[in-house]
Structure formats: C-alpha cells, structure tokens
Specification:
By secondary structure, the chain is of the alpha/beta class. The protein folds into two domains: 226 residues, Phosphoenolpyruvate-binding domains (TIM Barrel); 40 residues, no CATH class. It is 47% helix and 10% strand. The protein has an eight-stranded parallel sheet. It is globular. The model has no long low-confidence stretch (mean pLDDT 97).
C-alpha cells in the first residue's frame, strides 16, 4: 500500500535519528524511480541537475519550475523526497516563507534554504538577514504542522570563503533559528567535518560527497548523518550523452552508443 505524505515525512525524520544514509539526487522522474528501484530509502532533488534537464543553467529556474518538478518527484516515488529549494527564490523573509509554504504543498519530506545571494561581490546574505530567512522558513513549515524537515545551508565554501569559523557560526545560528539539519557544501577534510558535526550536535549534518572522497562508512565514523551528491549523477548522465553525441557530430561514427544501458532492463525497471 503506497505511503501517504505524512508517512513519508515521519519515516524521513526517523532516518535522521541514528546512523548514516545515502540521499542521492535524481534530476527527473525517471532517475528518481531508478533510485527507488535500487533500494534507496530517500532521495533529494538537485537544483543543478533539474535545471540542466530543462535546458537552463543552475540557479536560473523559477519557483514555479521547481514546485512543478517537486510535485512530480513526490508523486512518482513511494519514498521521502528532500527539496533543494535554493535560497527560497526570494530575498526577504516574508517572501521566502510564502515560497516555502508552496514547497511544502508539493509533498516533500525535507526542504533546504541556503544563504547565498548569487552575487559574486557579496556572496552571502548578511548574518542577521540569513537567520531571519531560516526563521521565516521554519514558521511557514510549522504553520500547518506539516512535519517537513528544514535544512539550513551555509554556502561559504562554495563561494570561496573557506572560513570554518564563519560556517560554524552560521550553522549554529541556523540550528537555533529552527533548522532540523545542517549542511555546509564544500567542506572536505575530516577536521572540517568533525568540527561541524560537533558544533551542531545533536542535530544531524548533511555532507556533500563529490567535494569529499569519503565513503559512507567513513563519513558515518565522523558523525555525519546523511550524504548527498548534488548534481553529480546528472553530470554522469550528461557525460555519456555528450560523448556519444559529440562522436556523432564530429566523426560521423556511433561507437559510443555501444556503452548504453540495456533498453530491456530499463523497460523492466519502469514496468
């Protein structure tokens, strides 16, 4: 019997109580269903992977685009979906709250809000505003007792600000503001990871693998609770597509097509 949205949200919260789990990132309905078929217990959307799938650059999709995508993902699988909700598609806290409320209605079990502005000259929102944005997202999630997990993200490392003290200060502030899970994409070393885990405990930490070469077991030993891969699976899919398409365009040959995944197996998986 298919799980209800409430069931998925309760199961997702339970997954964060102990251990460490992989939270892979599909980029469309087909890849989401494939990950469920492979036995993953939860998935997370990827802003970059989704954007590329509709012919846009990362951070150039609209809240309408994303909400439609999340609705489709949640309807397609019987496992929890965590939303990469970028920066809430707004600057001001009240507008972030309105968009988060829309995101919650898609059926997601978790939703992340990041503190990057998209402006290279001033890449992070001022600390006070960033905290108010998390508080607004929390209030929006709680307004209907949805049970959706809120992930607070500090994007400093991705924007070249490798100041771990700044990251920890922000993550602890986001935890105090109501974030259920904390995430600092770009941290790599064991020392950085352990410092973040200790700073926000007992709240769980999400680690981006791709920026770190750790295995799931190694990350678990450091206290990480969940691991996501961002746009990496999408980039892997595009790598195969571009190799084959470029060979056809530049050489007029088709050898790369021999490496494709068997169509019969795909049909079986999607039956």
């Amino acid at each position: 019997m298919p799980l209800t949205t409430a069931d998925k949200r309760a199961a997702f919260r339970k997954m964060h109580e102990s251990g460490c789990f992989a939270l892979p990132n599909p980029f469309d309905v087909g890849s989401a269903k494939a990950l469920e078929h492979l036995g993953f217990k939860a998935i997370a959307s990827t802003s970059a992977g989704f954007a590329w799938s509709i012919g846009k650059a990362d951070n150039h999709v609209t809240v309408d685009d994303v909400c439609a995508h999340l609705t489709a993902l949640c309807a397609a699988v019987d496992i929890p979906v965590n939303a990469d909700f970028e920066g809430g598609f707004a600057r001001e806290p009240d507008e972030v709250a309105a968009n988060v409320a829309r995101g919650v209605r898609t059926g997601v079990a978790g939703l992340s809000i990041e503190d990057s502005t998209g402006d290279k000259s001033n890449p992070l929102y001022d600390r006070a505003l960033a905290i108010e944005r998390i508080k607004a997202a929390r209030a929006a999630i709680d307004s209907d007792n949805s049970g959706v997990m809120l992930v607070g993200r500090c994007e400093a490392f991705l924007w070249g600000q490798s100041d771990l003290k700044l990251v920890i200060d922000r993550l602890t502030a986001y935890a105090d503001a109501g974030a259920d899970c904390l995430y600092a994409p770009g941290i790599k070393t064991r020392e950085e990871i352990v410092a973040v885990v200790k700073a926000v405990q007992p709240k769980p930490v999400n680690l981006l693998i791709g920026a770190s070469g750790l295995s799931l077991n190694e990350a678990a030993e450091l206290g990480v609770r969940r691991i996501s891969v961002g746009g990496s699976l999408a980039r892997m899919a595009w790598a195969g597509f571009m190799r084959a398409a470029r060979e056809m365009a530049e050489k007029g040959t088709f050898a790369e097509l021999a490496g494709g995944y068997p169509g019969g197996e795909l049909n079986k998986m999607f039956e």
